[in-house]
User: What shape does this take?
Amino acid sequence: MIRLHHCHQTRSMRSLWLLYEIGVDFELQVYPFDKTLREEPYRSLNPTGRVPTLEIDGLTLTESGAIAEYLCERFPEAGLGREPGHNERGAWLNWIHFAETISQHTAALTQQHVALYEDHMRSPIVMQLEAKRLAKTLATVETGLANDFLLSSFSAADVGVGQAVYMAGHFVKLEQFPKLSAWFDRITARPAYQKALPEGAGLYAKDFYPPWEISA
Ligand SMILES: N[C@@H](CCC(=O)N[C@@H](CS)C(=O)NCC(=O)O)C(=O)O
Assistant: This one.
């Protein structure tokens, strides 16, 4: 049994997209992005109260990078991993975990723009700084894109970084990065990505949150 615990438009979308790419059967448990994650029964499963959580092979995995590595090793026939000894192994691992470098800034911006809903709680300086630092991570993707994909062919690295860029696009305009934008359009046209999108409301009420604005 494989069971993914998921909230729409969060890092667990990375694991969901990857499971759809692999094409394996799994159960999906969707939660609202609220205190439900910090209460029972979810708290017993993931005491930190975060998503994703993946139950697989009697294990409980709670880190999206570890989940990507585990799933690619467990289902090598999907061809989305790069096994030890492969000439792209190091680059694959680095991109898988670079998704988190992107997402730490998106998480800070989500806290500022979405979670802290009263203006006096927010900091324009933090918003601007985090948006600049987020843009810098996207510039790294822009320069790292030598091919149609992050590596010589589509892999879990595109899923992890692609999902991080999807969230980042709520705070930084992607159009300023032409190679990244073309790659993002390419990978998000995939049916597995489309299936991982929320049907209704997700975490973000708006498509874009300008960093310099405090809402009225
Ligand atoms: N390093 C973890 C981070 C997981 C994480 O922080 N997820 C966020 C959603 S994007 C979350 O569940 N936040 C809930 C909270 O902070 O209360 C991973 O990559 O899976």
The CA atoms of residues 31 and 173 lie 29 Å apart. The pocket of glutathione is lined by residues 10-11, 37, 49-52, 63-65, 100, 107 (CB under 6 Å). DSSP finds eight helices and four strands in the chain.
